[in-house]
Amino acid sequence: MSNFLDSADWSFPVPIHYGPGRLNELGELCKVNGINRPLLVTDIGSKNLPFIKQTQNVLNSASLKCNLFSGISPNPLDTEIQIGKAIFEDGNHDAIIAIGGGSGMDGGKAISLIANNKFSLWDFDNDKAEVKDIKKFPHLICIPTTSGTGAETESTAMVTHSDLGMKLCVWHPNQKPNAALLDPKLTLDLPDNLTAWTGVDALVHAVESYTIDSLYSVADGMAIQALTLIGRYLKKTVKSPHDLEARGGMLLGSCLAGISFKKGLGLVHAISHMVGAIYDSQHGLTNAILLPPVLRFNEERIRNKSKMMNFVTFSKPEGYHSFYNNICNLLDELEINKGLGSLGVTSNKTEELAIKASRDAAAKTNPRKASVSQLKTLILESLENAR
């Protein structure tokens, strides 16, 4: 069994530096990558947390001039990204250090796409043709402080389009993080509820990517290893939040699940993105609530993969029904809310949510195609009791 108290480096898909206490190496990592004036980007909720001050101290000790932009909402807005771009350019920064949970890193990555060029953020919409003639993107380092998003190895970012009221994916194939720094010590003080919600987010990433009907064996292997680690350590991190080895296992499981969803995602994310855009709900919690009804919807198409997921996650050899019940039992143990109604979602919004979810990139890779009418029914069923 791996020792998650050790440090290790990997080069795939980007340089990854894992180990407890490795935030202290950030200054040297910046210098190796030619970074002199980084802009630290995080979310509103993380602004006053100890890891931000610690990061600033590490950078200051390395004689690096850094500023902090912490104006990113839990569901990042395009208007906030524009503010971040202005701060980046006015400060003559040469790099972005995106730190925090999914929202903080998404905010930083989105700013890195439009810094130093005149393109609109939505020119980088995942559904559009590749934007060409880009000036060199700024350096980018990603530091996750939760074990959920797994988005630290790509430039992909989910941002809410203020005019459309939709969460959309922006990215560019030529913008890659110079490094991802994974320090499990940064996750030790995460509250129990956020530990559970973000952990289930990682679980959903692995389940959805693995069940997509596509020949992408590298992603499948990472999804299975992610489920193995999440199954072993998720409940332990909630029950024993200062178990550093468990935190390390979850952080690596989250990272692997994030790499695996290069293959794509499914209806959990398609719906969750739009619920987040309209209701500003916590992404991991929204995913957790939606997972059981989407598993039911996809049953016929994922049955043949359920036995493997059940075995590696729960050490049970049975197929779909056992896996589904184990997922529901896990969510109950983690005290996950039942039903989208607990997030404020109301029935009069179901058609709007269904139409918007049908346009999400994740809907296109779900193992079972869903019409707007089917999505509406699925959302209605999810309002009061999702399992």
Let me know the number of strands: 9
Strand content range: 5-15%
Helical amount among residues, as a percent range? Answer: 40-55%
* Strand order, sheet with most strands: 1-2-9-6-5-3-4
CATH topology of the largest domain: Dehydroquinate synthase-like, alpha domain
How large is the count of helical segments? 14
Describe this structure in words.
There is one protein chain. The chain starts with 7 loop residues before the first strand and ends in a 6-residue tail after the last helix. It is 48% helix and 11% strand. Helix 5 (192-211) runs antiparallel to helix 6 (217-239) and helix 5 (192-211) runs parallel beside helix 9 (283-297). The protein has helices at 26-32, 50-61, 78-90, 102-114, 192-211, 217-239, 244-260, 267-279, 283-297, 299-314, 320-333, 350-358, 361-365, 372-381; strands spanning 8-10, 16-18, 38-43, 67-72, 95-100, 139-144, 157-161, 166-170, 179-182. It folds into two domains: 8-186, Rossmann fold (3-Layer(aba) Sandwich), CATH 3.40.50; 192-381, Dehydroquinate synthase-like, alpha domain (Up-down Bundle). Strand 7 and strand 8 form a beta hairpin. 52% of the residues are buried. The strands form two sheets. The protein has a seven-stranded mixed β-sheet with strand order 1-2-9-6-5-3-4, with helices on both faces. A two-stranded antiparallel ribbon has the order 7-8. The chain is of the alpha/beta class and 387 residues long. The model has no long low-confidence stretch (mean pLDDT 95). It contains 14 helices and nine strands.
